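QUALITY CONTROL LOG
STEP: pairwise intake check
CHECKER ROLE: data steward
CRITERIA: each record must contain a sequence immediately followed by its structure tokens, with no blank fields

ENTRY 1 OF 2
RESULT FIELD BELOW
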Amino acid sequence: MLRLADLDNLLRKAEKRVDQAELYHEKSSHLIIKTKTNGIDYSMSGESEGYSLRVIQNGRMGFSFFTLPSSFEKALDDAINASKFSRKSGASFPARKKLKDVKGLYNRKLLEINENELADCLVQMIDAVKQTGAKSTENAVSRAENTSELLNSEGGYFRKKDTEINVWSSAQFRDSHSSDWKTSRGFFDMEPIAQNAADYAIKFSGGKPVSGEFEILLHPDAVTELLQNILFPALNSEKVFRKTSFLSDKLNKAVCPKDISILDDPLIAGGMESCCCDDEGVPSETRKIVDKGILKRFMFDIETAGLMKNKPGNGFKHGFSNPPHIRPTNLVIDAKENVKLKHFKGIFVYDLLAAHNVNSTTGDFALEIGQGTLYDGGMGKAIRSCSIVGNFFDLLKNVSMADDFQTRDYYNGPSWIYRGKIV
């Protein structure tokens, strides 16, 4: 691992050959434990570390990565060569600015829990499922510690450190298979996750198909599938720039009911996508994507911000070996009116299958319901072998929000309600 002074020396070497340079370093450690039906299946731990380099030369950006400091010179050559084939964007690496201190992202106590203790928690999850009469099929826990730092030729610098734990459980009852999961920055009781998976498996068993128009209640897990595969691509400024986004010409126009706002908020204490800045060094701030139903902004990294003369802040890496890509942080739904679930009657959809097959350009979808039930103030008879069909942007214009605000990884909001078709 290179010290900051060593990274700075490498950056100075790059500056002699290019207009601007950026050096990024990432180190992570992880532990994964999985169970099979009756006990521990395997555990695996490891570390990864590496560096990435971006340069701007003649208005064009180039990227490369390396794992050994001795490979820096080759990486610099590769980045310069890559810049020759990129477009001119007008991008510039950000200067150093004061970053906000976001609380709750690093929990040392999580790292003090040893492998045997985590394995015992998984065994207890198996027992919790058995007590319901369902069968535990798989449980898993993953824990990670991540550190990243960046410095660039414009004086920009950050160092970020976080911890996370992810727990997943699946269970089977007769013909039904279901799961539940949770992510957090610190340790939590895992048994309720297993109990939920078992309860869902029981409630979703013995389903029959339905068809027709219904009031449909989408659980946040189903909502996130639509968000990830339709809304986020539509908000991606790269697609907006290329005019391949459905929302390209919808800025400052109504896209959902006026009582609903959608925020991109990286400043939530302990949030799974919270951060003091993005992975390009742009300081974090809460941004309203939709304000009282009106689309107010798209998501930009520094390259598309340079192309479209806008503010960046959504450039994030997926490992040191990849350049930043555009994505949201914590998505928060702010609704002034909420439908009480005790009064809702219709179809409850817990999850959707193969959501990656939607048409992200038009928003059209035809998705099989993985698990669902009739609903009348609560979950009723299970349904299966049927699909929801429609268009996401039509759904968004007429959606209502339930009163069950939840946090599911990056999503902070309730279940969605809309009038739709099931076939």
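ENTRY 2 OF 2
RESULT FIELD BELOW
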Amino acid sequence: MSLIPNFPQNLLDLHHNWHMPGSHPGLPTRVNPPGSPGSGLEFLTFHRNFVAQFHAWYDTQPFADQAAVAAWSFMPIQLKDPATTFWNSNLASQETRITTNTPTSATADELGIFIENGIHNWIHGATAIAFNEPIVGTFHSPESTYFYQIHGLVDYWWQQWQQSQKQPIKDIIDSKGLKEHKEFIKEHKELIKEKEHKEFIKDFKEVPEKLIKEKDKDKDIIEGGGQPGFGGDPAAQISQLSQRLNRLEAMAASGQAFIRPEERPEVGGGALEEEHPEG
């Protein structure tokens, strides 16, 4: 016998009420009946949380024995006795499907329904027989250390399934096709950067040198005044040119010329005269 002394009545009632709604009014209970959509995930989640609540209490007790409540990572051979626990090919098939995820369970809910309505119901009774622990086959099973080994195993199966769902995503990320796509994006960014640089140089070459000589606007052009759209803070210049690049690329994509005559910004003395008319 592996009964846990001084087991909290509130935890016992919580477990009983979840399986038998209404047995302890006022306590939370399951929402979805066994086998219905949502019931599988509810089954897995409730028992994972219940085990966590148990450990929050148990681990502080002077008699706590972690080895006694450690999760199983596989079903003990003692349970697989056709003569006493009624182990059979159907149960073996269920175990294989769960442990290999073949055929796969599309969702955690599907996995939970499959476990709860099949091998889970059997394993409680089989454990009660194999380890001479009758209480494990009742709603008072949380009082036994075997309960936490059983539901530790169920949670382990769930964790393994969750891990299996991450692998296909990793395979996609690591696939040659996606890697090539990443390289294309990287190359594309470099081309944009290069294009941005060329447009930047081109725009500044279009500013006639005579503006500096004749109008003495060199300081304004470099530091904040002067040629509209190009003077001032270098960061602002970069931002303006990035916006222009986006506009030009959109025009190119639609088949328009990069710069129409009517869209070319005015440069030279005329532009400055409009900005700073004399008199």
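INTAKE CHECK: passed for both entries
DESCRIPTIVE NOTE, ENTRY 2: Residues 177-275 form one domain.
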